[in-house]
Amino acid sequence: SLDQLMQFIKGPDFPTGGIIMGRAGIRAAYATGRGKLTVRSRTEITEIKNRQCIIVTEIPYMVNKAELIKDIAELAKEKRVEGIHDIRDETSKEGLRICIELKKDANANLVLNQLFRYTQLQDTYGIINLALVNGIPKELSLKEMLEHYLEHQIDVVQRAKRYDLRKARERAHILQGFVVALDFIDEVVEILRNSKTIPEGKERLMERFAEVDLTTLLDDPAYRAAMGMAVDPSEKDYPTIGLSEAQADAIVAMRLGQLTGLERDKILNEVMSLCEKINDLRDILAHKERVLGIIREDLEEIRGKFGDERRTDIENVSGEMDIEDLIPVEDCVVTYTNFGYIKRVPLSVYKSQRRGGRGVTGMKQREEDFVEEMFICGSHDNILFISNKGIMYKLKCYEIPDGSKASRGFNL
């Protein structure tokens, strides 16, 4: 639920610190995709040389410090904010520090509240969680953002593994050709020496080695699994393998010294390690839990590298308006059909029927569908849904999409 997610994702964390005033804006943004935040500078009232001073150590994100100091100075000069004696920029390597020195008779809290009101010591930020979902711009809740991000990461990992699998198979295929060349090294050298052109040499290689029995390779279960063959080689039903165009190209492209110097065991070891890699990649693509494990490892690595403590604090504000406070309390009629269509209509839309009335259509229905449940409840009441698997879900009445009196509603 949103409340559970917000135990971990408490709200925006700005690199410049500051204090977010209230949680209502965060909750609205995370629940609906839109919200508004008020971010306040971190300040401290202290006494320096018998004068009260307002010390600013953090300012809202993207606020220009020089412009802020200039605005405060102009407000003091125009006497819109009275009580400021001097303002100094004491920023150093240790961090940002603005000292606002007050007159002896000034009320520090009053001056500070005026500065919050008239300057960017306190600023407001709008949140719009807008993203492209299947090519369509959509405002997303926090949960929807996380779900779409996870789907994207699954797609990224699977595509990367499919690419690795294709490259590993291509390399194993070329090495298989090298094994053939080494098994018949004298013939290969003779064919290439007597060929007038490279294409002719390639054609003659493919013609000569159209059928080759790779018993050494085919005895290995890992190789057979990687090549999509039966793992058990006990029946010795080895098919003959022909030299492909890609393999012939690779052999022809090698210098003679390389060809004669190739070590058969070294090539076989590389083929086997590639076969293990191929089998592992196929297993990853076949099991979603392994893909999720890779995503988790990547996220933990990012957290280890970049994770740090929160810089922006969140303070409660007494009397702040929550998202639920914006939704009027009213009685609603909730209708649910046998096919799973549900809708909410304000009770005020309905009116009692007098004698002789013919009635009006209360809901459009699909053929063979009928209303199964119909009840009246408050817009802020919880409605419980129990699935055929015994799982209970909870929705506030106002979270059910509003429909007209004649509409079908939406399918649960």
Keywords:
flat, alpha+beta, 412 residues, 16 strands, 21% strand
Word description of this protein:
This protein has 412 residues and is an alpha+beta fold. The mean pLDDT is 84. It is built from 13 helices and 16 strands. The chain starts with a helix and ends with a strand.
Main β-sheet, spatial strand arrangement: 7-2-1-10
Task: Work out the radius of gyration.
Answer: 36 Å
Low-pLDDT residue intervals, each spanning 5 or more residues = none
Percentage beta strand: 15-25%
Tertiary shape: flat
E-strand count: 16
Helical content stands at 40-55%
Average the pLDDT over all residues and give the rounded result: 84
- How would you sum up the major sheet? 4 strands, mixed
Terminal Cα span: 17 Å
Please state the structural category: alpha+beta
The SSE order reads HEHEEEHEEHEEEHHHHHHHHHEEEEEEE
Q: Number of helical runs?
A: 13
Topology at a glance:
Elements: H1 2-5, E1 19-21, H2 24-32, E2 34-40, E3 42-48, E4 51-58, H3 65-77, E5 84-89, E6 98-102, H4 108-118, E7 122-128, E8 130-133, E9 136-139, H5 142-183, H6 185-194, H7 198-208, H8 215-218, H9 221-226, H10 245-253, H11 256-261, H12 264-286, H13 288-306, E10 313-315, E11 331-337, E12 341-346, E13 371-378, E14 382-386, E15 392-396, E16 410-411
Parallel strand pairs: 1-10
Antiparallel strand pairs: 1-2, 2-7, 3-4, 4-6, 5-6, 8-9, 11-12, 11-13, 12-16, 14-15
Helix pairs in contact: 5-6, 5-10, 5-12, 5-13, 6-7, 7-10, 12-13
